[in-house]
Design a protein that fits this description.
206 residues, alpha/beta, Rossmann fold, five-stranded parallel sheet, two-stranded antiparallel ribbon, globular
């Protein structure tokens, strides 16, 4: 299965992607992971990406698209893949369309209201010792670790609203592009992780 996972930041894509790729036996291709791997490997595109990341700039479309093309051409992605974090813009979606030798099977759209996204993100805390992620309301931490938990600097309401604005302005326009191809599977992302997983499986018929 060749699929794309899209949805607003904080919708739970990472959690659901990890569950799905195991079941579908396809690689989970995250652009963030790809950038880090390409930089570590020192590939020409990795060097370009590193130059942008070192300056705090967004990696340009042509570099991102090049990295995705390289990744989906690898042996483990020949039977299918799940793209997470790409495409983020309409030009990226159009470039991906041209790069694929076989069409996509599905685009899963995880839908969660903005206000709930803000509540989820602002309440997140991470444990620097174990890497565990908690939520003050939805997944409260044990009392003994509470004192050492960290609140990410960009997990504020203002930063979250800004990220949502970017999502609605730049990424949401790819939804009609894929709807025109009959690929979009809309999934309600509100509920427990297990409930959302079952909805995605039902939408994909898997």
């Amino acid at each position: 299965m060749r699929m794309i996972f899209i949805g607003p930041p904080g919708a739970g894509k990472g959690t659901q992607a990890a569950r799905l790729v195991e079941r579908l036996a396809i690689p989970h291709i995250s652009t963030g992971d790809m950038f880090r791997a390409a930089v570590k490997a020192g590939t020409p595109l990795g060097k370009q990406a590193k130059a942008c990341m070192d300056k705090g700039e967004l990696v340009p479309d042509e570099v991102t698209i090049g990295l995705v093309k390289e990744r989906i051409a690898q042996a483990d992605a020949q039977e299918g893949f799940m793209l997470d974090g790409f495409p983020r813009t309409l030009p990226q979606a159009e470039a991906l369309d041209e790069a694929l030798d076989q069409p996509l099977d599905a685009v899963v759209l995880l839908e969660v209201p903005d206000d709930l996204i803000v509540e989820r993100i602002v309440g997140r805390r991470s444990d620097p010792e174990t890497g565990a992620i908690y939520h003050l309301k939805f997944n409260p931490p044990p009392a003994e670790v509470m004192g050492r938990l960290k609140h990410r600097a960009d997990d504020t309401e203002e930063a979250c609203r800004n990220r949502l604005g970017v999502y609605h302005g730049q990424t949401a326009p790819i939804i009609p592009f894929y709807e025109g191809k009959g690929l979009v599977k809309r999934v309600d992302g509100v509920g427990s992780a297990d409930e959302v997983t079952e909805r995605i499986r039902a939408a994909l018929g898997r």
